[in-house]
Amino acid sequence: MSLSSSELESLTALRRDLHAHPELAFEEHRTSQRVASWLAGLGLEVSTGWADTGVVGVLSAGDSGRCIALRADMDALPLDELNHFPHRSRLPGKMHACGHDGHTAMLLAGATLLARNPAFDGTVVFIFQPAEETEGGARAMIEQGLLERYGITRVYGLHNWPGLPLGHFAVHSGAAMAGTDQFRVLLKGRAAHAAMPHQGSDPVLAACALVQALQSIVARRIDPLDAAVLSVTRLHAGSAYNVIPEQAELGGTVRTLSPATQDQVHRAMEALCRGTAQGYGLEVELEYRAGYPPTINDGAEAERCAAAAARVVGWERVHSNLPPSMGAEDFAYFLQARPGCYVWLGNGEAEGDCRLHNPRYDFNDALLPIGAAYWRGLAAAVLPQARS
Length: 388
Ligand code: NI
Known about the structure:
Blueprint: H1 5-20, H2 29-41, E1 45-50, E2 54-61, E3 67-73, H3 100-116, E4 122-129, H4 137-143, H5 146-150, E5 154-162, E6 169-170, E7 174-177, E8 179-188, E9 192-193, H6 203-221, E10 228-237, E11 243-244, E12 247-256, H7 259-279, E13 283-290, E14 295-297, H8 299-313, E15 318-319, H9 331-337, E16 340-348, H10 367-382
Bound molecules: nickel (II) ion.
């Protein structure tokens, strides 16, 4: 059973309408209204106001008492769209450049199929979350008690993936996406005349040494078969040609695929900052801000999702051996709280710069029926009806 042609037409129109009216983190008011009214139209119990703009739809069938969640994200990105098709963004500085418009429409499509034929035993909670891109809308909804409120025991997510052939799935057992942290280091020395460096303590020289030393963490402290990235992306000091400045500031990002590695990098940075500052006669402050944790799929749930994907597109289009991405994803918070799995769905070859976070990106509407069938099949597989 699949979407009728009129349902597909309406969902495609909805997807394009969302694309034309992108909304940034925690501002997804118009989007969440459209989502809520679609869910209500299907006869689902609808709950709004989660983390301000989040929407939840609840569909129950049977009396097993089991409950799972399927999740989509709704927010757009702050950039100007460079596409010229009719459904391009109407709003300057805002664009659905990550396909969350498509994720929203696909989950509504899945809800449409499941509502029409609820061939499962239990409760499916459809989560439409705000603010995936930077603000952690998932965490906000979890902190408000979403998982406990409905007794959710399993969580599932999906992201379209440019560069993966259209309609192919990638399912990782274990890490799918990286954890992402930010850091800022302030080196405080003593200013001096540039011609008399011995009268001060130079934070510029120390900053240069520290940038190099920090690279030794990934090169020499982390297991070569593990993965980590440490990039210094900011380095600010001084303003004159003949003054050694009082302080230097550097900053950047750390990406890791496990909490243990994340912690190891953080501790090694602390040691190197302290040691470098001491060696150069300076004081140092390290501000390390943990961001999204790594997105880690449960092994058994990954197998389940791969099987559900295979039932839709065939095993030859389900890839279980792709490397994880060093990008990040706030579905990681759901996976920290409950077992589950986050899969990639191929958006097609990334021709014409149709890549995530690119001003020429667009979600491929051909994925709507595929995503819908995946969600329906997954819910049925995780919440099977008793055989009579
Ligand atoms: Ni995204």
